[in-house]
Amino acid sequence: MNRIDTAFARMEARLSATPELRARVFAWLERLSPTKDPADYFRQRRTLPILTLPEWVGQSLGVESDDAFYDDLTYSTIVGYCHIRLLDDVMDGDAAAEPALLPAAGNSVGSAAGSASMTSSSSRM
Fold first, then answer.
1. What average pLDDT does this structure show over 78-92?
2. What is the per-residue pLDDT for 18?
């Protein structure tokens, strides 16, 4: 399983406590994806640097690879992007982003980015 798949499995698990919201969030993500697989939206060539730049920099600097850290970073980047994109889409009146999705931005999806970052930071202290 690659980092993007791992991030989406984690997001799905986090949203599983609210099945209706989970279904709506993933339906919205499916509409963004060219293949209807939400993870494929982030596999597109134009989004690749967002997710791989930290690892590329680490490799070029000779930093020892930390898979758990990079998994957390990928997850928080995807969730952070989704948070901002959802708010933007709702504010712009995009038909795909219904206002009923906003609890995901403030609760499930929005707080998930923070918890991933906090988990990584605290495990290194």
1. 90
2. 87
> Where would I find the H helices in 16-108?
19-32, 38-43, 48-60, 67-92, 102-103
What are the C-alpha distances in Å from 107 to residues 87, 113, 115?
A: 13, 10, 11
pLDDT single digits (tens) 4-58: 999 999 999 988 888 988 899 999 999 989 999 999 999 887 776 888 888 889 9
User: Measuring CA to CA, how many Å separate 24 from each of 18, 20, 60, 104, 121?
Assistant: 10, 6, 40, 9, 31
Residue-range domain boundaries for the chain: 3-123
Angle between helix 3-15 and helix 19-32 axes, rounded to 10 deg: 150
Residue 107 CA to residue 111 CA, distance in Å, equals 5
Enumerate residues 6+ apart whose C-beta is below 8 A from 11.
Answer: 75, 78, 79, 109, 112
The pTM of the full predicted model, rounded to 2 decimals, is 0.79
